[in-house]
Amino acid sequence: MQKIYPNAEAALDGLLFDGMTICAGGFGLCGIPERLVDAIQASGAKDLTVASNNAGIDNEGLGKLLRTRQIRKMISSYVGENKEFERQYLAGELEVEFCPQGTLAERCRAGGAGIPGFYTKTGVGTQVAEGKEHKEFDGETYILERGIRADLSIIKGWKADEAGNLIFRKTARNFNQPMATAGKVCVAEVEEIVPVGSLDPDCVHLPSIYVKRLILGAPYDKKIEFRLTRQRESA
Amino acid sequence: MGWDRNQMAARAAKELQDGYYVNLGIGIPTLVANNIPDGMEVTLQSENGMLGIGPFPYEGEEDPDLINAGKQTISELPSSSYFSSSDSFAMIRGGHIDLTVLGAMEVAQDGDIANWMIPGKMIKGMGGAMDLVAGVKKIIVVMEHVSKNGDPKFIPECTLPLTGKNVVDMIITDLCVFQRPDHSSPFRLIELAPDVTADEVAAKTTARYES
């Protein structure tokens, strides 16, 4: 079975439709599947529901799909860096479901693991708990949160082998790992594709079973939102 | 008079213990990292998937794949590890993190905290704050004692939407420190900043507390 596709457009062929739900990896602009986002933008697929921790910034990441009005609803924990998002949200053009970050990660992990719901203390006594089932365990109150299953997952990895075994790099792993499992189909873009046998099986972060389609997305021009440095002490 | 931002962070750092795993929020809490006592081993967690946050990188060594939860470039330590967001919040929700220090807009006398949204203003989202206050063993709030308008922030009941209910263990302001031994006890005024009197604290606080 050939998992490697020549480009993002080919890898998404037949997978996109209006009104679909997409799980997207990344944290801020770190580890975002930018080639796949570009291809979704070019496809014109609309009325999308996107589960992603953030919503990109203006003209970067999911910000591109917001600008073209292809997203109807976002499920996110933090959207602070996006002016177009703010405009659409305040104008009532964009629906937003704010979800605590850990709850979002677990909803996707659970969805991908065949768990339709789980109880958590996160959000008890807050707006997040409104309308949700409450249950007491060992004297503490928990709320029921639903697992997320999506039509499609799009993720960004560092290296993959030709079979689709994948590893991430540093904090670019973030939501990519749980999001990969939550979609009926996961399409991954990576910086390097290596022959089968070149990755240590003990060091695979995402086993090949989750990666249905794969593209080489390089070269990347990775963005930094807040560049902070320290001075070298002079010798 | 009172503590400045750095001194508030330094006061929070006094709550650290050797071997602690700690998550620091954005703003004043981040400054706690500069005040870890020499010889004490404290591991900082970043909720985007890292244990062992190192200092800001040297110029030219910034790595877009290595950022903290505030999306700032950071560096790694020999003891660092990386993991997914689901693993990160498993360790937070699972009670494995010893301490978190975070900012707040309001804290109520029963330990409720509000720090994520102001009705009528653009909502940015709660990020990981609700998970942290629900899961971490000890919650320290560091905040100015009064708002920019001079209104008390430690109050009988939060007016803003909550981040967590009955979760705060300690409050460090520019004027003083309040603490409670458990979540069914009231807060007690345990410390005053230099040149601050208990009367001044009382005048600027509407929450009930023991003194």
What Rg of chain A, in angstroms, do the CA atoms define?
18 Å
General form of chain B:
globular
Class by helix and strand content of chain B? alpha/beta
Beta strand count of chain A: 13
Total number of β-strand segments of chain B?
A: 12
| CATH topology-level fold name of the domain at 5-35 and 98-203 in chain B | Glutaconate Coenzyme A-transferase
Strands ordered across the widest β-sheet of chain A? 4-3-2-1-8-11-13
Q: CATH H level of the domain at 5-35 and 98-203 in chain B: which superfamily?
A: Glutaconate Coenzyme A-transferase
Nearest-integer average pLDDT of chain B: 96
Q: Please provide the ordered H/E string of secondary-structure elements of chain B.
A: HEHEEEHEEEHEEEEEH
CATH top level assignment of the domain at 5-35 and 98-203 in chain B: Alpha Beta
Q: Give the structural class of chain A.
A: alpha/beta
Oligomer: heterodimer
Tell me the strand percentage band of chain B: 15-25%
Calculate Rg of chain B over CA atoms: 17 Å
* CATH-derived architecture of the domain at 5-35 and 98-203 in chain B: 3-Layer(aba) Sandwich
Order of helices and strands of chain A: HEHEHEHEHEEEEEEHEEE
**Low-confidence runs of chain B:** none
How does this structure look, described?
The complex is a heterodimer of chains A (235) and B (211). Chain A is an alpha/beta fold. Chain A has helices at 8-11, 34-43, 63-67, 83-90, 101-112, 176-182; strands spanning 21-24, 48-51, 71-76, 95-98, 117-120, 134-137, 140-146, 150-156, 159-161, 166-167, 183-190, 192-194, 213-216. Chain A is globular, with a radius of gyration of 18 Å. By secondary structure, chain B is of the alpha/beta class. Chain B has helices at residues 5-13, 28-31, 85-93, 129-135, 198-203, and strands spanning 21-24, 43-46, 50-53, 76-82, 99-102, 106-108, 113-114, 138-142, 154-155, 170-172, 176-179, 188-192. In chain B, the strands form two sheets. A nine-stranded mixed beta sheet of chain B has the order 4-3-2-1-5-8-10-11-12, with helices on both faces. The mean pLDDT of chain B is 96. The interface between A and B is large, with 59 and 53 residues.
